[in-house]
Inverse folding.
């Protein structure tokens, strides 16, 4: 039986760039998520402090983590797509030469 | 009408499956939809896969009973997608073919990896299947008036039919449809909750009855000290028996009045000692069930509960807010002067030898409801309790990227870029839905719709408080949620058996048609197993069960995926060992945990493992095993050379 991806795609020139970027973004988010966990463990009472619109730290931090995940994901995909286009164009130019 | 809407929706799902299934002839079509699904459809299908019965029924049910601690699951589940997107999505797409095992084994061609990864996929899928099946039974009970077991069997039969006739293409479109509708109707429900606003006397739903019933204002009797013991101030009420519950702590008393007896909780209300009305179930030696003093029947069930006792310190009809914004809703519920009547239970054998379960009110200030601590004790807690919490959050964060039925969805799109884009659509859809869960859960908590014996139905019952149509639609979507998720899981599990074990591990020569047939046969067997387990785990919160499945996935699969991608010295034996150690440790710790002891009917305090969430032991152990075994096997290889 052949053993290759179900759908074929061309060479990914930006693979290493995307992996590096992904790791950095993961670390940024993990830090924020870790902060949330640590804050809950060390000072759960502080989580009930009102912050804005009558909502407390727990709700704002929780919503913030969800929204921040989406923002990071969007930044990631824009940067990856840009790099893919740039490197693909470069590769095809080199191929033409 | 509820049944009609429900059947219509389920019929549509089945039609779609059969229609799309006719086109599935190849193995690639069955397991990976031919790699031809558009990324935006796949993104919503991801949401459909991920927003399982646990997300919808379990999280809302948990929030309805323990407030913010239930919302922690929403935060953790969503955060897990970050690991999936940034670390796993594209490399997995590049490495794999149909299954997670393909990706892990792509560099080594090792029989050990094939076997371990396939078994891991099977175990994780089955662990994840249990809560879905439990959720199915829970839904069918109030909607169609059928017993839990019948609901589980119906879902099992439908799903086996779906999977056996179609595969990944139909599963994807069913998930797309269901994911989209789940988000839209959840939003409608949240809008309805905000438009209704808050009050201290919400109109209630009554089990077994159509339409709303007036709010049942629980009674309270004044108590006085008589020789060091509290007794009712009104001498027409006499104490017959007393019981002290240790966990949760409560002083309970059986009172006799006008020839009838009932259980009450001794508590203080506004600083005054009172006997508070409870609800109770007594089961006699002959098996006769008495609910609140009368024989159990479809008309005599435990009342649904949950209401605001005082809103920012005020009580009475004038406290009704009318329509409020979502922010105001959260601010009012979370106010320190808002008092919420939550319910706990204690089970004991009474003086007559009957098994009695008393459900009693606990008044909780809003500020405690909207911060962690009601389920996971964090304030004045022991280091072990803190570790249990950290362990849960770790498993939720690491589990998503290790779930086989999520990983196989990366193979249904044409390219790594599409895998990335569909993940982003999924994060947006799932994140939005998870924000809604907080409103749905709290809405159920304060609108008198919480079922005391099974909180999983909180969100559908909240919908029922707005009318039968919304209830029917929400229930049908939730049912389709179960169908879709179970289909995805069974495709993943059958892939593990037919593709990984039979084809790649055992080397059974099969043509494309035979491979699909093998997958369908495996789907049938796994479906039957899921039905059996779904009946066995009745009444457990489905979200809690999913949390455990995440812990198994994170322990067994994630270390192998991460190290394969980022550590060049990883060996085949290292991966195999880490999967085996991850599964065994996580499963052993779970099976010996207090929650499972409770499930076996044993005293949770005697459980040998003092915590519920195994992640903080099993995940690092799996990583360490991989590193040590890889280093050892690397050395051996070097010496041989």
């Amino acid at each position: 039986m052949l053993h290759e991806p179900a759908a074929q795609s061309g060479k990914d020139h930006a693979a290493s760039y995307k992996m590096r970027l992904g790791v950095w973004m993961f670390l940024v988010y993990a830090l924020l998520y870790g902060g949330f966990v640590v804050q809950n463990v060390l000072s759960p009472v502080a989580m009930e402090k009102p912050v804005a619109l009558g909502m407390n730290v727990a709700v704002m931090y929780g919503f913030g983590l969800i929204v921040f995940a989406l923002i990071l994901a969007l930044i990631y995909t824009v940067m990856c797509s840009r790099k893919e286009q740039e490197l693909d164009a470069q590769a095809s130019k080199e191929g033409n030469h | 009408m509820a049944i009609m809407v429900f059947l219509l929706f389920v019929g549509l799902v089945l039609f779609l499956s059969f229609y799309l299934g006719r086109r599935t002839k190849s193995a690639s079509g069955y397991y990976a939809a031919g790699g031809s699904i558009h990324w935006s459809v796949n993104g919503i299908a991801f949401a459909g896969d991920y927003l399982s019965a646990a997300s919808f029924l379990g999280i809302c049910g948990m929030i309805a009973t323990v407030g913010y601690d239930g919302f922690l699951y929403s935060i953790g589940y969503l955060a897990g997608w970050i690991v999936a997107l940034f670390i796993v999505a594209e490399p997995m797409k590049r490495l794999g073919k149909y299954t997670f095992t393909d990706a892990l084994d792509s560099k080594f061609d090792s029989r050990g990896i094939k076997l371990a990864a396939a078994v891991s996929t099977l175990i994780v899928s089955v662990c994840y299947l249990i809560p879905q099946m439990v959720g199915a039974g829970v839904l069918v009970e109030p909607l169609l008036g059928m017993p839990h077991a019948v609901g589980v069997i119906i879902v099992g039969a439908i799903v086996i039919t779906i999977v056996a006739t179609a595969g990944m293409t139909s599963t994807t479109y069913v998930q797309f449809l269901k994911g989209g509708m789940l988000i839209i109707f959840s939003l409608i429900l949240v809008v309805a909750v905000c438009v209704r606003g808050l009050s201290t006397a919400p109109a209630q739903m009554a089990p077994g009855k159509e339409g709303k019933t007036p709010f049942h204002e629980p009674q309270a009797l004044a108590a006085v000290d008589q020789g060091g013991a509290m007794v009712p101030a009104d001498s027409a009420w006499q104490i017959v028996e007393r019981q002290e519950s240790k966990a949760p702590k409560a002083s309970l008393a059986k009172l006799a009045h006008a020839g009838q007896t009932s259980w009450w909780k001794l508590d203080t209300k506004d600083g005054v000692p009172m006997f508070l009305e409870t609800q109770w179930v007594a089961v006699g030696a002959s098996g006769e069930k008495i609910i609140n003093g009368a024989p159990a029947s479809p008309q005599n069930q435990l009342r649904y509960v949950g209401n605001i006792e005082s809103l920012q310190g005020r009580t009475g009809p004038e406290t009704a807010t009318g329509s409020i914004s979502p922010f105001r809703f959260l601010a009012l519920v979370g106010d320190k002067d808002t008092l919420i009547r939550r319910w706990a239970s204690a089970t004991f054998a009474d003086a007559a030898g009957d098994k009695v379960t008393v459900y009693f009110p606990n008044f909780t200030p809003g500020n405690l409801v909207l911060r962690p601590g009601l389920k996971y004790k964090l304030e004045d807690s022991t280091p072990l309790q803190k570790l249990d919490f950290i362990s849960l959050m770790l498993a939720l964060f690491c589990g998503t990227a290790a779930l086989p039925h999520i990983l196989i969805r990366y193979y249904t799109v044409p390219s790594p870029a599409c895998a990335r884009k569909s993940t982003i659509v999924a994060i947006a859809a799932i994140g939005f839905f998870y924000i809604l869960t907080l409103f749905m859960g709290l809405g159920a908590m304060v609108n008198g719709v919480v079922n005391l014996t099974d909180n999983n139905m909180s969100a559908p019952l909240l919908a029922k408080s707005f009318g039968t149509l919304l209830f029917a639609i929400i229930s049908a979507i939730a049912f389709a949620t179960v169908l879709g998720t179970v289909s995805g899981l069974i495709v993943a599990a059958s892939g593990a058996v037919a593709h990984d074990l039979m084809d790649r591990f055992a080397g059974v020569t099969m043509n494309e048609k035979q491979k699909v047939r093998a997958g369908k046969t495996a789907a049938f067997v796994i479906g039957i197993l899921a039905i059996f387990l779904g009946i066995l785990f009745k009444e457990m919160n489905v979200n809690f069960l999913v949390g455990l499945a995440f812990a198994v996935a994170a322990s067994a699969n994630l270390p192998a995926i991460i190290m394969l991608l980022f550590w060049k010295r990883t060996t085949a034996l290292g991966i195999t060992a880490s999967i085996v150690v991850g599964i065994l440790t996580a499963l052993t710790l779970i099976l010996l945990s207090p929650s499972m002891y409770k499930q076996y009917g044993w005293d949770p305090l005697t459980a040998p493992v003092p915590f519920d969430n195994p992640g903080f032991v099993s995940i690092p152990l799996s990583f360490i095993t991989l590193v040590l075994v890889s280093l050892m096997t690397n050395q051996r290889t070097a010496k041989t050379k």
In short: Chain A has two helices and two strands. Chain A touches chain B through 50 residues (CB under 8 Å). Confidence is low (pLDDT under 50) at residues 1-8 of chain A. Helices of chain A lie at 15-42, 57-96.
